């Protein structure tokens, strides 16, 4: 069984009674719905992600994922969503997770998958060492008849149903914090106050001129977008830059002496700022502060090679210059030739976009885990 043979269902179908009926998956953590945090954690683990929601389907559809309701009426609990999820899945195996677990493990699917292979079992679910979490479960479609019968006979308890099957409980005591969830609005409010978004993780793309930094970024962005990341880019250039057109109204305002000109239309807006001749070059820190942490999850920085930030260093064999020194900030080395790992830097294929995107995504998850601690 490969990861391509697993689908995932985010369970958003409950009544959220402890949240006064608020639709839990749509509540905001760091200005992003909980369901979007869960989606980001699942990206790269499974082939397909679906959402089970019995309310506000039009809002969940904005996540860009298929949305389906329980087939059985009456808000019958997680098992009803699991039954419908098994029926809607294109895969034989389905991973189920609740919508209020924004820190779930990046290896959740792989470890549950390993457990059902070893036993073998029809399902596997999580224990964090102290508590069991049966709504974090990998289930086989062969369970559909038994689950349907259990529900129609009045059964509602997730663990009770699972213990009637051939099951495995998987130990995640190495990362119990990954299963922290939110049952009350006050819990979300507290975390949002404690961890208000002030900055976005930044990762540099560095290398000599001609090493292909811009080309790499252009090819990487679609891969990262498919993994659910909203990416901003900051680029340094030694040339004079003009985003305006001579003769346009905004250009005329600048020529007349405006220090900043903002232009807006229905599709986008831009702010053009003139650097005063008496000022030093604008800093990366200042530029990063201009970005909206509600709109982007990650900033990729091209250039600014002297800045103290984590970076991927690029080098091509055909270049006349030797490989630059690998300092403490280089987290990965991307080349088009074989090279031995230096320090703790990971070696990547410069032409392997999915490999590089996967590394960046895992690095971003690590940053998120540190922020959530």
UniProtKB/TrEMBL annotation:
Q: Does the keyword Magnesium apply?
A: yes
As cofactor, the record names: Mg(2+)
Q: Write the record's keywords in alphabetical order, separated by commas.
A: Cytoplasm, GTP-binding, Magnesium, Metal-binding, Molybdenum cofactor biosynthesis, Nucleotide-binding, Transferase
EC numbers for this chain:
2.7.7.77
One Gene Ontology cellular component term attached to this UniProt record is: cytoplasm
- Which residues does the UniProt record annotate as the domain Molybdopterin-guanine dinucleotide biosynthesis protein B (MobB)? 202-336
- SUPFAM superfamilies, per database record: Nucleotide-diphospho-sugar transferases (SSF53448), P-loop containing nucleoside triphosphate hydrolases (SSF52540)
Q: Which reaction does it catalyse?
A: Mo-molybdopterin + GTP + H(+) = Mo-molybdopterin guanine dinucleotide + diphosphate
Indicate which residues the UniProt annotation says bind GTP.
11-13, 24, 52, 70, 100
A Pfam family that the UniProt record links to this protein: MobB
Residues reported in the UniProt entry to bind Mg(2+): 100
Location of this chain's protein in the cell: Cytoplasm
- Set out the biological process GO terms recorded for this chain's protein: Mo-molybdopterin cofactor biosynthetic process
Gene Ontology MF terms: GTP binding; metal ion binding; molybdenum cofactor guanylyltransferase activity
This protein's record includes keyword Transferase: yes
Q: Where is the MobA-like NTP transferase domain?
A: 8-163
Domain remark from Swiss-Prot or TrEMBL: The N-terminal domain determines nucleotide recognition and specific binding, while the C-terminal domain determines the specific binding to the target protein.
- Role: Transfers a GMP moiety from GTP to Mo-molybdopterin (Mo-MPT) cofactor (Moco or molybdenum cofactor) to form Mo-molybdopterin guanine dinucleotide (Mo-MGD) cofactor.
The similarity annotation says: Belongs to the MobA family.
Subunit composition and interactions: Monomer.
Q: What is this protein called?
A: Molybdenum cofactor guanylyltransferase
């Amino acid at each position: 069984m490969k990861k391509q043979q697993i689908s995932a269902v985010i369970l958003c179908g409950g009544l959220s009674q402890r949240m006064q009926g608020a639709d839990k998956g749509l509540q905001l953590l760091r200005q992003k719905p909980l369901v979007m945090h869960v989606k980001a954690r699942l990206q790269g683990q499974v082939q397909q992600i679906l959402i089970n929601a019995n309310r506000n389907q039009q809002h969940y559809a904005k996540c860009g994922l298929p949305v389906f309701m329980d087939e059985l009426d009456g808000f019958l609990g997680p098992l009803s969503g699991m039954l419908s999820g098994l029926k809607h899945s294109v895969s034989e195996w389905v991973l189920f997770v609740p919508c209020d677990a924004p820190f779930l493990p990046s290896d959740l699917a792989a470890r549950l998958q390993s457990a059902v292979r070893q036993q073998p079992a029809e399902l596997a679910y999580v224990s964090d060492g102290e508590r069991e979490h049966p709504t974090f479960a990998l289930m086989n479609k062969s369970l559909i008849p038994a689950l349907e019968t259990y529900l129609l006979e009045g059964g509602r308890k997730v663990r009770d149903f699972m213990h009637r099957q051939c099951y495995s409980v998987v130990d995640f005591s190495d990362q119990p914090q990954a299963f922290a969830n939110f049952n009350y609005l006050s819990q979300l409010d507290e975390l949002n106050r404690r961890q208000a978004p002030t900055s976005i993780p930044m990762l540099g793309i560095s290398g000599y001129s001609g090493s292909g930094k811009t080309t790499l970024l252009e090819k990487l962005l679609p891969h990262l977008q498919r993994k659910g990341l909203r990416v901003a880019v900051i680029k340094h250039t030694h040339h004079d830059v003009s985003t305006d057109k001579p003769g346009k109204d905004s250009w005329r305002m600048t020529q007349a002496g405006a220090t900043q000109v903002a232009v807006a239309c229905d599709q986008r807006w831009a702010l053009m700022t003139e650097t005063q001749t008496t000022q030093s070059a604008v800093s990366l820190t200042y530029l990063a502060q201009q970005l909206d942490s509600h709109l982007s999850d990650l900033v990729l920085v091209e250039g600014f090679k002297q800045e103290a930030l984590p970076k991927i260093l690029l080098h091509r064999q055909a270049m006349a210059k030797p490989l630059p020194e690998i300092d403490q900030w280089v987290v990965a080395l991307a080349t088009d030739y074989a090279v031995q790992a230096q320090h703790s830097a990971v070696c990547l294929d410069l032409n392997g976009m999915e490999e590089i995107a996967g590394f960046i995504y895992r690095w971003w998850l690590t940053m998120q885990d540190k922020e959530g601690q």
